[in-house]
Amino acid sequence: MSNPMVLLETTSGDILLELFADKAPLTVENFLAYVDDGFYANTIFHRVIKNFMIQGGGLTLRMEEKPTRDPIKNEASNGLSNARGTIAMARTMEPHSATAQFFINTVDNTGLDFTEESVRGYGYCVFGQVAEGMDVVDKIARSKTRSVGDHDDVPADSVLITAAGRFE
Fold first, then answer.
1. Exposure on the CB side of residue 118, measured as CA atoms within 13 A
2. How confident is the model at residue 168 (pLDDT cuts 50, 70, 90)?
3. Which one of 55, 56, 87, 92 is separated from 150 by 20 to 30 angstroms, measured CA to CA?
4. Domains observed in the chain
5. Terminus-to-terminus CA distance in the chain, angstroms?
6. Is the pLDDT assigned to residue 109 strictly greater than 70?
7. Are the CB atoms for 98 and 120 separated by under 8 Å?
8. pLDDT given for residue 93 in this prediction
9. Each residue of 126-160: b (16+ CB within 10 Å) or e?
């Protein structure tokens, strides 16, 4: 069985994601449920940190957080590393708090990998990789940023996810 693919259509270009359902089954199922529901349409990449990552999937253009499903179990102990071009779940300091927000690593971020089952060591669950469109990710990563309310690192020119859908 081949890995599920998701196409993120953004105002900066398209990003094709390959998801690793064999390595992170709960995370992929959760992400695909949000994709199938159309949740990601009209959300933005609201956090862009140079030489680190771009984060999106939860806030509207007005910087309002969309309501989500319950958090999922962190599957970061799956052996995958937060390498350049991988997609991982964003979360709070609580290891099992990921819902809809995700980030794409723009450099190798091995410091985000699972090391042990503790608050500090749990890491961030990698569940896929960019199959096509890393140039788009890099373009977004070069965005000038500003502070908006209590959010830092917000692109000055909004990067909107116009649609997200399964790609056959």
1. 4
2. confident
3. 87
4. 5-166 (2.40.100.10)
5. 13
6. yes
7. no
8. 95
9. bbbbbbebbebbeebbebebeeeeeeebbbeeebb
Q: Is residue 82 a contact partner of residue 128, using CB atoms and an 8 Å limit?
A: no
CA distance 21 to 24: 5
Residue 15 CA to residue 133 CA, distance in Å, equals 5
What is the residue-averaged pLDDT of the chain? 97
Euclidean distance between CA atoms 24 and 129, whole angstroms: 12
Mean pLDDT of the region 147-160 = 95
Strand partners, 10: 13, 161
Q: Which amino acid, one-letter code, is at 66?
A: K
How would DSSP label each residue in the chain?
-PPPEEEEEETTEEEEEEE-TTT-HHHHHHHHHHHHTTTTTTEEEEEEETTTEEEESSB-TT-PBPP--------GGGS----TTEEEE---SSTT---S-EEEESS--GGGS--SSSTTT----EEEEEEE-HHHHHHHHT--EEEETTEEEEESS--EEEEEEE--
The whole-number pLDDT of residue 48 equals 98
Residues 6+ apart with CB under 8 A from 158: 11, 44, 61
